[in-house]
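Hi C.,

You asked whether I'd gotten around to modeling the 166-residue construct. I have! Everything is below, sequence then structure, no commentary in between.
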Amino acid sequence: MTTEPVADRETLTYELFGSAVHDLAQQVVDDGFEPDIVLAIARGGLGLAMGLGYALGVKNLSSVNVEFYTGVDQRLDVPIMLPPTPAAVDLTGMKVLIADDVADTGKTLEVVRDFFADHVEEARTAVIYEKPWTVIRPEYVWRRTEQWIDFPWSSTPPLRRTLASG
């Protein structure tokens, strides 16, 4: 099943996603930042974190699950970190690269960054997209947009197994 792109939306394809990962990794390298761990914000940052881990030669990956968006332009009042969360002590003294798909409001990135701030040596953020109104300015950004983004992994409904009647 394919979907037609919507004119007022930014559409990321899997091919463009590969370019985004490469370009973001190159930005990190050019900046001289050598993370000890890539921390994904689930779910949107999982693919990016995996790609950055491979591109940067970082085998230490972790994730934190944050719930904020409940639908298109629908969100909770504040982002909530869901269990299990990585123990902050596990990251003590590390250089952390936090990966997410988009810095829209920036509040999810802010919650995660602030949660680990007192425990890590340094934390930087990498996102595929940044919106102009975000409260966090990621160090590494692939593209900036004001549009809603259709990501290849979330632009179609989840697959469901249907049982045959009878």
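If it helps when you're writing up: Helices lie at 14-31, 46-56, 107-116.

Thanks,
B.
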